[in-house]
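job 3f2a | input accepted
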Amino acid sequence: MILYNVTVKIEHAAHAEWLQWMKTVHIPDVMSTGLFLEYRMGRLLGMDEPDGVTYAIQYYLTDGATFEQYQAYYAPRLQAAHTEKFRGRFVAFRTLLEIVDKGAFYTEN
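job 3f2a | predicted structure (109 res):
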């Protein structure tokens, strides 16, 4: 399994608009490609963020070939739409990870 992680810091002034757009437009567009198994979106906690709010959006894929398909056919258009809408109000970086172990949470009764 592959994890495609997109970390975004969005300026405070654009935060509410960006979050709504991500939830209602961008992430649904990414998921509608049919290439991703699931996604998770998290907000960075415990940091003083005077210049913006940081999120990590994690998309899960079956393998590297599927990611290459996403990069070739979908990523340029989807990333361009994000850049055009929020130009100059965010910074982002992307990482690709191979999941080497997936455990379950243990809770003691």
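job 3f2a | Strands lie at 2-10, 38-43, 53-61, 90-98.
job 3f2a | closed
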